[in-house]
Write a structure and sequence with these properties.
2 copies of one chain form a homodimer. In chain A, 39% of the residues are buried. With 215 residues, chain A is mainly α. The two termini of chain A are 22 Å apart. Chain A is built from 10 helices and no strands. Chain A folds into 2 domains: 59 residues, Orthogonal Bundle (Arc Repressor Mutant, subunit A); 135 residues, Tetracycline Repressor, domain 2 (Orthogonal Bundle), CATH 1.10.357.10.
């Protein structure tokens, strides 16, 4: 949803020139993170690539942290959107497939390297934790919606399921280099969610997932 | 078990000088991987650090791949030994705690970066996959022993449990930066193994685990 130009509140996503500048800078920042990593991440290089003045970047984002945070958020939100298919099982399958695809891409590998190298006290540590708090809340909302639909037992915590499923896919792709096929993902979701399902899973929406991937 | 010197079969682990040279070279190789990463991994630098001739390294290990493979194997085997406590639950808790501790160390982070950066066709890709095949077989042996004891339902595959548990710990430590405490690990093991346990888990061997960590 684009709102009209609001040049006095440049942090908001706005339409028109302000939005184009933001999008160009965020895209350049994602590109910089992907190809150079966090240690070489440079505002001046991002400014050159996006064809804006460095001062505009500092005015809008305040610091390297602010820009890296928005770039990570934006890249995750675009690459791994939170689905809302009306079925817990289909939602989880769909988001896990997008996570697997992201992790197998140069951008996903760069984000993983960035996360792995990060330690408490370092420049971007709190930025990264903040991004994950936001992402995990979004993933937990998949379960919350299923509780509202009477599909998932609200007494069962979502987080251990999220850890097991996203952890398994992440571990196979990043570490052991075993396939995490769509079928593997479907099996894991069924296995680790069956004990909390109040309504048996509908048809696993394979067709929908397949169409999404082909798109 | 040290065997007598067998200089004609230098690939074997042998006692005496040959073993000392091997240990020094492997330790230097692990150190090189930890501090410089795989791209800068240099046999000549390892040779200098271990105070041996480069030619001795090539004679024994053949190539960078051979030495990196042995260094990764040796480091994992030392840092995360496969337990055999007589209880599936206690074995899993113990090895997961050691994996968490490894992953939080500079060496563990270096190994993770190495794995994440690796792609099919690259120099060390098959080496890495081979190491993981070996590790996964060792982890599956924990379940196989439990089947022999009548503790675990042999009809239930071990691999999805391993993926969920090791994936969850790996993901929290590497990515989300949430704690993977001993209590968290105990909860996850109980949650994701309860449906295959034929004999209810004994006391979760917390004291043993705690002693191990303090040692």
């Amino acid at each position: 949803m684009n709102s009209p130009k609001t040049p006095t509140t440049p942090q908001k996503r706005t339409g028109g020139r302000s939005a184009r500048v933001r999008d160009a800078v965020v895209a350049a920042a994602v590109d910089e993170l992907t190809h150079k990593g966090i240690d070489q991440f440079s505002i001046s290089s991002v400014a050159r690539a996006a064809d804006v003045h460095e001062t505009s970047i500092y005015r809008r984002w305040g610091s390297r942290q602010g820009l890296v945070a928005e770039a990570l958020h934006a890249a995750h939100a675009t690459a791994t959107p939170i689905p809302d298919t009306g079925s817990l099982i289909a939602d989880l399958q769909q988001v896990l497939i997008s996570v697997r695809d992201l992790m197998q891409s140069p951008m996903g590998r760069a984000f993983t390297m960035l996360a792995v190298s990060m330690q408490p006290g370092q420049e971007f540590y709190e930025t990264l934790k903040g991004m994950w708090r936001h992402r995990l809340a979004a993933l937990e909302s998949i379960f919350a919606k299923a509780v509202e639909r009477g599909e998932w037992d609200g007494a069962i915590a979502a987080r251990p399921r999220i850890d097991a499923l996203f952890g398994a896919v992440n571990w196979r792709v990043s570490m052991t280099k075993d396939d995490a096929t769509d079928a593997y993902i479907a099996e894991m979701v069924a296995l680790y969610c069956r004990d909390g399902l109040l309504i048996p899973a509908a048809a696993p929406a394979q067709a929908k997932v397949a169409r999404r991937r082909a798109a």
